[in-house]
Amino acid sequence: MMLPGTRPPIRWPAWMWMLVLLLAMPWSPPAAASPVQLGPDLPYTVVTDPAGEATPESVLPALRKGAPQHHIFSRGYTRDTFWLRFTLPPQRVAGGEHWLELKPSFIDDVRLFLRPLGSDGPWRLRRAGDTYDGPIGDVDHRFPLFVLPPNDTGYEILVRVASTSAVLLQMKLWEPREFVPAATWETGFWSFYFGLAALSTLLAVVLALVLRSRLLWSVTAISVAYVLVACVQGYVAWLIPVVGRTLQHYLTSVLTLSSYALLLWLASEALQLRQRLPWAHRLLMATCGVVGLLVLSVPLDLYGSAIHIQSLVYLSTSAVFVAACGYVWWKDRFRLSSVLLGLGPLICMVASLFGLFSALGWIPFHEQIYVVWQYSMIVNMLLVTGLAVYQMRVNHLQEQETRQLARALEVEREARFNQRQFMGLVAHEFRTPLAIIAASLQNLRYLGVSDPRQVSRYDKIGRATDRLVQLTDNCLADARLDASELWLDRRRVCLLELVTEAASLVRPAGHSWTLTLEGRAPSSVQQPAWLDPAMMRIALSNVIDNAVKYGDGGPRVDVSRRGDFWCIAIRDQGPGIPEERVAEVFERYRRGSRSEQRSDRRGVGLGLYVSRQIARAHGGDLILAENDARGCCFLFTLPLLPEDSSV
Fold first, then answer.
1. How far is it, in rounded angstroms, from Cα 294 to Cα 258?
2. Which of 36, 176, 451, 548 is the most exposed place for a label (fewest CB within 10 A)?
3. In this structure, are residues 371 and 355 in contact, taking their beta carbons and an 8 Å threshold?
4. Cis peptide before 104, with omega less than 30 degrees from 0?
5. What parts of the sequence cross the membrane (predicted)?
6. 304 Cβ contact list (under 8 Å, min separation 6)
7. Domain boundaries, the chain
8. For 465-511, what is each residue's pLDDT tens digit?
9. Are 373 and 358 in contact (CB under 8 A)?
């Protein structure tokens, strides 16, 4: 129960809590752990051995004369061998044994030559690396860890480094009492990381199977990057005996290449480039194919060349993706869900680019770059998964709403069908009593009436009867037009006679109508047409009736021939149709306002609709040809007789 005026508590999804917890994790080991690092704390000198055949004695003079380096050693992808020299003064190794840790795990061959500082005695050799079959180190750890006994004179150390991967060497000197808590913290951190990675991967797989979304499948595929992280962190070689080191050696290369391709796929699906920017999607997918082919370079021992090719392709494709992000966000008016879906892969892509440039030696190496990249992968995966589920839910709700609207529309269609059926039935039932009234009225006229008032009453009854007959004819015609197949009883008819019959049904009270042929008085020559006389009589009478309703004078009808068509122009003398209502005049059940039509001749809004449908059923049309302040002109176009159409 909440107190009045208090806000309800914010309920975050579970994935968001996991994201917050992940971001809240410390980014560095406890402050008490302060190892000495090669480069920043221990200056070194370096020489290049292109042939890889030098010995400690042959390179030692050059190393002793070299300029000291104070940054972490990194040379990118090269087949050259490098020799490094540094010294550990007595104060660095006094007070007990020290542990020398070597990173990263993907160095092929690392050889340490060490001897007491100032001694000319033999070198003590220690080896490590992916291609070395011996023990990883003196202490069971996922990275090589060598024990340096206490020495009052210090140590002189030479390091020989060679690799088919990026040539990079991180070396740290630890005191055992500092290393153990730092390693414990790091193990706990990576346990949490890989546990969260496994959970998010499982979640993505289940959701991809259930929702069948390409975006979720791309999220599932990018989870192979966690295996790459496990390789870089040395877990594969540490946990899998015998073959683990060789497996880690090749997996690191293969997954480094494939992870970039899968990230491009994820980026394309996150922004829906397949629908939004097809050309950008095709470009990204083509890049994925090129990078996928580069995987074949690993067994061919061309990994370094493949990385350089991939770097150029990936860099240009990343620029395209950044431009696509800006375009999609702008089109979506920077909607939050759209921005977040694009921002996740974008951050991951930027972080991977910095990691790639660092491995290539284009920028100085910083360990934080890899930490950001590893974090960005899992944060991106959780973010995209959560947003994808949210988007799926929104789409599901939209589909439900669409189905409800479709059902409502179907109900409305059924109701309108039943209404038309009912109107057709009623109209049909009206025909008999109306015919009786018309026949009785005709009999009354034959009896002869001398009273003018009586004659006027008979005229009103006649016009009302004709009007009801016209309404019933429209309802019956509408029902026929609504049928799946409209059958027309075409006959050879005289067009002028048909127009005259249609006009006689209207009986314009107080007005006279005029009929012309090609603008002149009609001749006695027949104008044959191939029509359904009953249906066309309804169509023509509807338009003439409209001209009477909305005009101040009698309508003018002109029949003419234009090419293979008869044209019947029906003009009224009304005020015209407002421009905003022109598009509606041929719609069903659309009527003019009460102020626009005569009070005694209101309809139901079927006339023009029925007339146009009848004209089109005959292969012609009905259009509003003219509309101005002097009146309107509706134009019928009807085909000629089949045998006359070529004349």
1. 9
2. 451
3. no
4. yes
5. 190-211, 223-241, 247-267, 279-300, 312-330, 339-363, 369-390
6. 77, 78, 79, 164, 165
7. 35-174, 184-400, 488-639
8. 776 776 666 666 666 666 555 677 788 888 888 888 888 777 655 55
9. no
Using alpha carbons, select from 301, 303, 37, 307 the residue that is nearest to residue 169: 37
- Residues sharing a CB contact under 8 Å with residue 380, sequence separation 6 or more, in sequence order: 266, 344, 345, 347, 348
The answer to whether the pTM exceeds 0.90 is no
CA-CA distance, 591 to 610, in Å (whole number)?
13
Top CATH class of 184-400 equals mainly alpha
CA atoms of 523 and 190, how far apart (whole Å): 103
Question: Tokens 């989870």 sit at which residue?
Answer: 223
Mean pLDDT throughout 322-345?
84
| Contacts of residue 105, Cβ cutoff 8 Å, sequence gap at least 6 | 130, 142, 143, 231, 232, 233, 234, 237, 248, 252
Burial zone of 380 (CB within 10 Å; 0-12 exposed, 13-18 middle, 19+ buried):
buried
Residue type, 603: G
Span 488-639: which CATH code?
3.30.565.10
Cβ pair 434, 465 in contact under 8 A: yes
Write down how long the chain is: 647
With CA atoms as reference, report the closest residue to 324 among 306, 342, 302: 342
| Cβ-proximal residues to 599 (8 Å cutoff; 6+ apart), any chain | none
Query: DSSP state, 139?
Result: S
> What topology does CATH give the domain 35-174?
Immunoglobulin-like (2.60.40)
Residue-level pLDDT at 31? 46
Tell me how far apart the alpha carbons of residues 281 and 267 are, in angstroms, rounded to a whole number. Answer: 9
Letter string b/e over residues 545-570, b meaning 16 or more CB atoms within 10 A of that residue's CB: bbbbbbbebbbbbbbeeeeebbbbbb
CA dist 216 → 64, 204, 267 (Å): 56, 6, 12
- Angle (CA) 168-174-176 rounded to 5° is 140
